[in-house]
Amino acid sequence: MSSSCNRGTINSQNTEPITTIILVRHAEKIGETDELDPVLGLNRSQELARMYSNSSIQHIYSSNYNRTIKTAQPLADLLGLQINLYSTDNLAILTQKIKSEHKGEVILVIGHSNTIPKTIQLLDSATSFPDIPSHEYDNLYTVILTENAKTKVIKKKYGLKSPTKE
Asked: Lowest CB count within 10 Å: 2, 25, 63, 160, which one?
């Protein structure tokens, strides 16, 4: 999937809207704090902004943590978007909102090692990922939803490769 996702893309076979959800874990943090690492974390958040600076992302969702908000902020600033906060306690509300209010749009969700896999599963019950290892920050998931076709989930890597383990 290219970073130039088109707004309101239509499936050419039956003219149904295609909703694209991009999900990433927050960038590197300092130890067990809620602060981004000033080098690695900042670099990853800027790489995310560079990758999607010319995209058609229309909404950015972040959990209400400093590290997720700071991961989203560079891209939000570039695209002139506000960051919508969501609760990690009820991911079903987030996924229902995406499905009902953002059909045919491109959405970015910034979350955590345990919430990103759960969010993907709520978007597509046929897909299951384990929690992201604590040392991995370079996973990028794209979920492509249509009303009548099978949901597609693509997993890629972005930015600097995460170390094999902490």
From this structure: 2
